[in-house]
Amino acid sequence: MSITHYNDTESKQFINKEVSVNSVFFSGRNNFRSFPRQITYDNQQVTFVESGMRYLLQKGQRMVQLFDMTDGQNNYRLQFDSSNFSWTLLNITNLPR
């Protein structure tokens, strides 16, 4: 089995802007977890096609959630800060073709 790593920094756009999450969905049977379904970024709506990955990070007393999502063409990394209930789009990466 071979594993290919894509680390193309030219295809990654660092955004770091607050975004609106228009809809969410829930995943899991016994332990429901919420994921963003659609965001608005620069007057564009982006709809995600799968549940993606969710990571929990603790920064001191603060809990931050990171989400890796895809719309089928790009990958999006979002951050949810539960201390002020804000969503931030950290970066967008083009999917390898």
Task: Describe this structure as you would to a colleague.
A seven-stranded antiparallel β-sheet has the order 3-2-1-7-6-5-4, with no helix packed on it. The protein is built from no helices and seven strands. The protein is globular, with a radius of gyration of 14 Å. The protein has strands at 12-27, 33-41, 44-47, 53-59, 62-70, 74-81, 86-94.
Short précis:
The chain has 97 residues and is mainly β. It is built from no helices and 7 strands.
Number of helices: 0
Task: State the helical fraction.
Answer: under 10%
Rg (C-alpha, Å): 14 Å
Biggest sheet strand order reads: 3-2-1-7-6-5-4
Mean pLDDT, as a whole number?
Answer: 86
Largest sheet: 7 strands, antiparallel
Gap between N and C termini: 20 Å
Give the overall form.
Answer: globular
β content, as a range?
over 45%
Order of helices and strands: EEEEEEE
| Secondary-structure class | mainly beta
The beta-strand count equals 7
User: Which regions contain 5 or more consecutive residues with pLDDT less than 50?
Assistant: 1-5
Task: Give the helices and strands, then pairings.
Blueprint: E1 12-27, E2 33-41, E3 44-47, E4 53-59, E5 62-70, E6 74-81, E7 86-94
Antiparallel strand pairs: 1-2, 1-7, 2-3, 4-5, 5-6, 6-7
What attributes characterize this protein structure?
97 residues; mainly beta; 7-stranded antiparallel beta sheet; 64% strand
